[in-house]
Design goal:
By secondary structure, the chain is an alpha/beta fold. The chain contains eleven helices and 15 strands. The chain binds adenosine-5'-triphosphate (ATP). The site of adenosine-5'-triphosphate has 17 residues, from helix 1. Residues 2-342 form the RecF/RecN/SMC N-terminal domain.
């Protein structure tokens, strides 16, 4: 599967562009703020019906305009398919496959698998546990539709339980009986989520280790350890034991909504001890493991977007990264950088076909 053609109208600072791509490596070079990341974001949008960077869709419309449109042609299993994404101010977004609008956007997710790796992924390391849960949920729900349904159900039960706890205003007797219903739901739905997360991490961890060892040269010892209340015996009993505390606090303190991944570098939290380059290597290996995981599950190579990934990596790590993406496992790759000579030297080494686009003020010129 690969993206063959993309036309953009009013997507962030890209007012109008018609771009052709090939399998292999597509490079975008330009100064800061030129529109390189915006282009990758548009490609991301075609896969996930949302931006990688902006939670609010209307922010994607070019300033002073009323709409944006993205039209793309993909080759999927030797067949050309057309996709359309459009948003008018104050209206619902439209997403179409071969001119037919999707009844639900979720029907589209998973059709055009893609992994974006950007400097912003450092939040996986630096920010709170919600980022790591989002990472797990994002990957697993791409191929397991039931998983997304479980998360939605769990969150509903959690919201109900929390509302009950808040309404109790610290009085146990007011809620004791009703809590049982929600405890039961959190235990069963949460248990199913926990099982899937456990399998995912067990599959991901060795692949993460493999990529980390390869890029770093193997001198650093790393680990990704899954922590969940469900790992301890009888979750329902834990819920029961925490009821007094939950009522006092007005929210639920036990459950998969508190799951986390402990990220270790040489036995210490990478967040505290890792240098910028070490952190970059760490999340790069996590995202590449995600890529391999999805590749195995879909049976074909997702698109890979590498946004500004060579900055802060030493020469050894940068050359190892490029050696990796030169492999067969990666079919179509989009890379951004500010310096053409550096990127040209890097991509030549892969032996893959490549294209260069120069980017300035949201405009793209083929520059091979
Ligand atoms: N809705 C919008 N309308 C117009 N311009 C926008 C909009 N949203 C973002 N921009 C502009 O897009 C530019 C950022 O583009 P982008 O992030 O693609 O840069 P880049 O080429 O990747 O730069 P860098 O090398 O710094 O990462 C900024 O100048 C920003 O003001």
């Amino acid at each position: 599967m690969y993206l063959k053609r993309l036309s953009l109208l009013n997507y962030k600072n890209i007012r109008q562009a018609e771009l052709e791509f090939e399998p292999g490596i597509n490079c975008f070079v330009g100064n800061n703020g030129a529109g390189k990341t915006n282009l990758l974001d548009a490609v991301y949008y075609m896969s996930f019906c949302k931006s990688y960077f902006n939670a609010i869709d209307s922010q994607l419309i070019c300033h002073d305009e009323d709409f944006f449109v993205l039209q793309a042609q993909y080759n999927r299993q030797e067949q050309a398919e057309a996709f359309y994404a459009g948003l008018k101010k104050n209206q619902k977004k439209q997403f179409k496959r071969n001119k037919k609008e999707y009844p639900r956007l979720s029907d589209h997710i998973g059709l055009l698998p893609l992994v974006m790796i950007s400097p912003g992924d450092e939040r996986l390391i630096n920010e709170g546990s919600d980022q790591r849960r989002k990472y797990i949920d994002g990957v697993v729900s791409q191929f397991d539709k039931n998983y997304l349904a479980l998360i939605i159900k769990y969150n509903r039960a959690l919201t109900q339980r929390n509302a009950l706890l808040k309404g109790a205003k610290g009085r146990m007797s007011a809620v004791e009986e009703q809590l049982d219903i929600w405890n039961d739901q959190l235990a069963t739905i949460g248990g199913a989520i926990f099982d899937r997360r456990t399998h995912f991490i067990a599959e991901l961890e060795p692949v993460f280790q493999k990529y980390h060892r390869f890029i770093s040269g193997g001198d650093e010892k790393v680990g990704v350890i899954y922590h969940s209340h469900y790992q301890k015996d009888n979750f329902e009993e834990q819920l029961q034991r925490s009821v007094i505390r939950d009522v006092a606090l007005g929210y639920t303190t036990k459950g998969v909504h508190r799951d986390d991944l402990e990220l270790l570098l040489d036995g210490y939290p990478v967040k505290k001890t890792g240098s910028q380059g070490q952190k970059k290597t760490f999340f790069l290996a996590m995202k590449l493991a995600q890529y391999e995981f999805l590749s195995n599950h879909f049976g074909f190579a997702p698109i890979l977007l590498l946004d500004d990934m060579f900055d802060k990596l030493d020469d050894l790590r940068a050359s190892r990264l490029i050696e990796l993406v030169g492999r067969e496992t990666f079919h179509q790759i989009f890379i951004t950088d500010t310096q053409k000579p550096r990127l040209l030297e890097i991509v030549k080494k892969t032996g893959k076909d490549f294209n260069f686009y120069r980017v300035a003020d949201g405009e793209f010129t083929l520059d091979n």
